[in-house]
Design goal:
The complex is a heterotrimer of chains A (about 270), B (about 375) and C (about 350).
Chain A (H helix, E strand, L loop, with lengths): L1 H16 L2 H10 L3 H7 L4 H34 L5 H13 L2 H12 L6 H7 L7 H26 L2 H9 L4 H12 L1 H17 L2 H7 L9 H10 L3 H35 L1
Helix pairs in contact in A: 2-14, 4-8, 4-11, 5-8, 6-8, 6-12, 8-11, 8-12, 9-10, 11-14, 13-14
Chain B lengths: L2 E9 L6 E10 L4 E5 L6 H9 L6 E6 L2 E2 L10 E4 L11 H10 L9 H14 L15 H14 L4 E5 L7 H18 L3 E5 L2 H7 L2 E6 L2 E6 L1 H6 L4 H7 L3 E8 L2 E4 L7 E2 L5 E7 L5 E3 L5 E9 L2 E7 L6 E7 L7 E8 L4 E4 L2 E4 L14
Parallel strand pairs in B: 3-8, 3-9, 6-7, 7-8
Antiparallel strand pairs in B: 1-2, 1-4, 4-5, 9-10, 11-12, 11-14, 12-13, 14-20, 15-19, 16-17, 16-19, 17-18, 20-21
Chain C lengths: L6 H19 L1 H4 L4 E6 L4 H19 L5 E5 L3 H10 L5 E3 L3 H9 L12 H4 L2 E10 L19 E2 L7 H15 L6 H12 L9 H9 L6 E5 H10 L5 E4 L3 E5 L3 E3 L1 H7 L2 H12 L1 H9 L3 E2 L2 H6 L8 E3 L6 H10 L4 H7 L1
Parallel strand pairs in C: 1-2, 1-3, 5-6, 8-11
Antiparallel strand pairs in C: 3-9, 4-6, 4-7, 4-8, 4-10
The chains are: A mainly alpha (about 270), B alpha+beta (about 375), C alpha/beta (about 350).
């Protein structure tokens, strides 16, 4: 009885909190017909926002996967002074507001910031340009790969790594042939989480973007611009596309994790 | 390849307690040596020190007379089989076995064909034909263990280390693999060191047993040496069934606390002492005391007795030779335990039995 | 054997890297001479969309080249100024109030006398602050005191971040001062009471308009005249009415070329042409079409019927932006006193 009661409470909560927003987004996108919805994609600024989102996400995922693997491996493999502090710091972006994440970069690379004058002379834009947006997204998504990978490396990998060492493998061979493939499902899961977060990031990116349509607007920023410009259908169409992308990633991640659980039991 | 351990010391990085405490041991070329002892005795640590997986703070490890302390684990060319197999779950069986060869530098790496034929050869040797394409999680425990062994042998190691390799197997499979492993050892002649907490396993497999406790080797020798001349009460208790009978030494006699046990002469100093005796060495003496012995069951010449004293009603159960023509219930009897060894505080005060009444032929 | 380094994987990795690096390389070219960035404030989206298009076409005709590409960024005036200060590569700023451009001048991004470089204090269009109410004016709001009636909810953005909000605030302040017996103290009391009727503080004028128009919050929106007219037109006149209070402020949103950026981008000439275009008859007419009051008297006369007659006072009558900013909107200023308690 209790079981059903709690289950129905959870169902109710999901029905109220989780289901309606995406449904409404799609309803709003289609409110003036499919033609109007598709017209959104004729706007070069919309296409540019989609392209920039894909590029920022791709760059973020590639860089943070590298960083994350390195950090997770270092933190699980070695014991050194300050390791505990480092683990806390890696998780910091999870608790810090994304806006702060953006402001940090502004403080460092803005023209009023520490490196501002140097960068200005170099003539290469970082803030209010895609590199800055990548930096801001990097900060926000930094913990995901590390956090999903670390427990896997710490618990499952040890004996297999030692076995590889006894068979003559060096540090890099162990990492590439044993550690990473052994944790590949966790890695994929972390990468997908990073992808989902990077695609949807608004706060941090907003601070360093400058909101220049066609140049520095990602999809979430462009959605805001469209909405504020009374282009409701276009705004919700972009939102629907973004939601669709996110849902795809979440489903992919779920499939990976389910496979993960199965292999975990078997092996 | 012979292995020589010379005063090895390893302390715990956590609390500074010794894990391996001044261990010296020589493992002869081609021998099968078992490190035996209760859990926490330092067996696995010693094995990992030999492998180079754990550092040691004192002493020297030599293989074939050459020090290897400064060689990294991967450079020692030692095969190691882990307790939980440690197979690479994402690789096929064939890839697991071929791993050690495939990661060699290009100069010394065999061709793909050579690796494949080596893998096939090992799968045959392990009696695992046709599983090369499968993945570890598709194999049974015994099969996985043999794959792990094949993987360890693939690179042609000079020494094979086995860390509790049968711990995770069910008893039936364990017994099968044991016999098979012994055969394999005899065929390959590869110097092998096995860690186990199972005395029977060690006895069955190894020609030399090193019994460890508290980070030290208490006694090393053949199984028979350990059983017949245990260096300490611990060794005696570890190597077979032992009945411990408390008592005292007084005026050159051992007197048991229990009544109806015959005192016997000893050279040990006066004070509290225990007699440790294999049950089969106990003699039942009819009509020599006030106790009762009840024969519960027989097995050939041996019988299991429940022995109850007349005063204070204390009991013992032991298995020994049934005296000729004895009734199932022997009344007014006593026990002769003079074939036992006398111990005080975990050391012998008289390590050899006074009366040599042992009948080794009847022991199993 | 273990094929972790199979060629396909390596190729994929290379592609991903290249894809990641691509946007890092492009922006430099994007600031070639044929591209302009206009960093503007919130309610000018529709205005500059048309201006950009027409200017681009006119420039191409006059110079026989390809049309210039103009991008315009919108946001709260203060926030936009901040972005430019931190390095947003604006060639032109068209902000909600002169003070925001003064800050850029103080930091050397353009000359201190920037406001004298163009006619009418560099203000191509003026506007004013009006009340947008629900259709039929159910709460019967006619003048500033009506905003304080019980049950009236007022929507206005945060003056700390929004230029429009400062105009709203100062319109109320100036009106209160001009009442019989009006003093800074009575004005302060009026504003304190007014902000007691404000349920949400958006960061920009467009956000506030959205709150009122799309989310249905509040009974009256204090808005730019152009924003109010746009809202009634875009969302149907049957939903809203505009109430012009008898006395209100003359809002003067100025424009300027950001000298240092334009020089760096090599766009000084075209940027100058762009701001001058705003004062041209064509530019003035576009402004009028989007409900910005043209400063050109002739064009204003042509559009007489679009704009209600209104009595206005200007910012100079309140002491100018520097003083107003210091007294009212700096930390610990009058606004902080009003809103925190």
């Amino acid at each position: 009885m209790t079981r059903f009661m709690f289950a129905s409470i959870v169902y109710l909560l999901v029905a109220i909190m989780i289901i309606p927003p995406p449904v409404l987004v799609f309803v709003m996108a289609l409110s003036h017909g499919v033609g109007t919805m598709l017209a959104t994609f004729a706007d070069p600024d919309a296409l540019s926002a989609i392209r920039l989102t894909v590029l920022v996400t791709a760059a973020t995922v590639v860089i943070n996967t590298g960083f994350g693997v390195m950090a997770a491996w270092t933190l699980s493999q070695f014991r050194f002074p300050g390791r505990g502090l480092l683990i806390v710091l890696v998780e910091l972006p999870l608790s810090v507001s994304p806006v702060v994440g953006g402001l940090i970069w502004l403080l460092v690379f803005g023209t009023q910031g520490w490196w501002g004058k140097v960068l200005e002379q170099w003539g290469y834009p970082i803030m209010f340009a895609p590199p800055g947006m990548v930096l801001a997204t990097l900060f926000v998504t930094f913990p995901y790969v590390t956090r999903t990978l670390m427990p896997m490396l710490a618990h499952n990998g040890r004996e297999a790594e030692e076995a590889a060492v006894m068979l003559g493998a060096g540090l890099w061979q162990v990492l590439w042939h044993v550690t990473l493939p052994g944790a590949r499902l966790a890695l994929v899961s972390g990468v997908l989480l990073t992808t989902a977060r990077a695609m949807g990031e608004f706060g941090a990116v907003s601070v360093v973007s400058g909101h220049i349509p066609g140049l520095t607007e990602t999809m979430p920023l462009h959605i805001e611009t469209l909405y504020n410009g009374y282009q409701t259908v276009a705004a919700f169409t972009m939102a629907a596309l973004l939601a669709l992308m996110a849902i795809t990633v979440v489903i992919a991640r779920n499939i990976v994790e389910r496979r993960h659980a199965r292999m975990g039991i078997a092996a | 390849m012979s292995v020589n351990l010379d005063h090895i010391i390893r302390v715990s990085p956590r609390n500074g307690q010794p894990i391996v405490d001044d261990v010296s041991l020589t493992v002869a070329d081609g021998s099968f040596t078992a490190l035996v002892g209760p859990s926490g005795a330092g067996k696995t640590s010693l094995l990992r020190i030999i492998a180079g997986l754990d550092p040691h703070q004192g002493g020297q490890v030599s293989i074939d007379g050459a020090r290897v302390d400064n060689l990294a684990a991967r450079e020692r060319n030692i095969g190691f089989v882990f307790q939980h197999y440690a197979l690479f779950a994402h690789m096929s069986v064939a890839d697991n076995i071929g791993f050690g060869l495939s990661i060699r530098p290009r100069r010394t790496r065999p061709t793909r064909a050579e690796i494949a034929s080596r893998v096939a050869e090992l799968l045959d040797l392990m009696q695992l034909p046709g599983v090369g394409g499968r993945y570890p999680h598709q194999l049974s425990g015994g099969q996985r263990q043999r794959v792990a062994l094949a993987r360890a042998l693939a690179t042609g190691p000079r020494l094979l280390l086995l860390d509790e390799p049968f711990g995770a197997l069910d008893p039936l499979v364990r017994r099968q693999i044991r016999g098979w492993l012994r055969d394999l050892h005899e065929r390959l002649g590869l110097t092998t060191i096995l860690v186990t907490h199972d005395r029977q396993e060690a006895t069955e497999l190894a020609d030399t047993i090193a019994l460890m406790r508290h980070g030290r080797i208490v006694q090393a020798g053949t199984a028979r040496q350990l059983e017949e001349s245990p260096a300490s009460p611990f060794v005696m208790e570890f190597t077979g069934d032992v009945i411990r009978i408390p008592g005292r030494v007084e005026h050159g006699l051992f007197i048991a606390d229990m009544p109806d046990i015959h005192a016997f002469a000893t050279t040990g100093a006066d004070g509290r002492a225990d007699v440790l005796i294999r049950p089969s060495d106990i003699r039942l003496l009819p009509e020599r005391g006030g106790a009762m012995a009840w024969l519960r069951q027989t097995r050939g010449m041996l019988g299991t007795y429940d022995f109850t004293t007349s005063v204070g009603i204390q009991g013992l159960r032991f298995e020994t030779v049934v005296p000729d023509g004895a009734a199932p219930i022997v009344v007014n009897c006593a026990l002769d335990i003079s074939a036992g060894r006398i111990a005080r505080d975990d050391a012998w005060i008289q390590p050899v039995a006074v009366t040599a009444t042992a009948v080794p032929a009847l022991r199993t | 054997m273990s094929d972790i380094f199979s060629p396909t994987r390596r190729r994929f990795f290379g592609l991903a890297l290249a894809a990641g690096a691509a946007p890092l390389i492009r922006p430099r070219r994007a600031w070639a001479a044929s591209t302009l960035l206009n960093v503007s404030y919130d309610p000018t989206r529709e205005l500059y969309q048309e201006i950009d298009r027409d200017f681009s076409r006119a420039w191409a005709q006059a110079h026989g080249g390809s049309p210039v590409q103009i991008r315009t960024s919108h946001g709260g005036s203060g926030a936009q100024a901040r972005s430019v200060l931190e390095g947003a590569p604006a060639d032109i700023v068209t902000l909600g109030l002169a003070y925001d451009i003064d800050i850029l001048a103080q930091n050397g991004l353009l000359a201190a006398d920037w406001q004298k470089r163009l006619p009418h204090n560099s203000t191509p269009f003026t506007s004013t602050i009006v009340f947008l109410v629900r259709k039929g004016n159910p709460k019967n709001i006619r003048d500033w005191p009506d905003l304080l009636r019980d049950g009236v909810q007022v929507i206005t953005p945060n003056p700390k971040t929004s230029g429009g909000a400062r105009w709203n605030y100062l319109a109320a302040w100036g009106w209160a001062l001009r009442q019989p017996g009006g003093t800074p103290d009575t004005a302060r009391a009026y504003l304190k009471s007014l902000f007691g009727h404000v349920p949400v503080l958006d960061t920009g004028a467009r956000g506030a308009t959205n709150s009122f128009v799309q989310r249905g919050l509040g009974d009256v929106l204090l808005a730019w005249e152009d924003e109010a007219l746009l809202a009634t037109r875009e969302l149907g006149p049957e939903q809203f009415d505009i109430v012009v209070p008898p006395v209100t402020i003359l809002a003067e949103p100025p424009v300027a070329v950001v000298d240092r950026n334009a020089q760096a981008h090599g766009t000084t000439e075209i940027a100058q042409a762009y701001v001058e275009f705003l004062f041209s008859p064509v530019g003035q007419k576009i402004g009028a079409r989007h409900y910005f009051r043209p400063v050109d008297p002739a064009i204003l006369a042509e559009n007489r019927e679009r704009f209600a007659d209104v009595h206005t006072f200007d910012i100079a009558s309140l002491g100018g932006w520097a003083k107003v900013q210091k007294d009212h909107f700096a930390d610990g200023g009058i606004f902080d006193g009003i809103y925190t308690k």
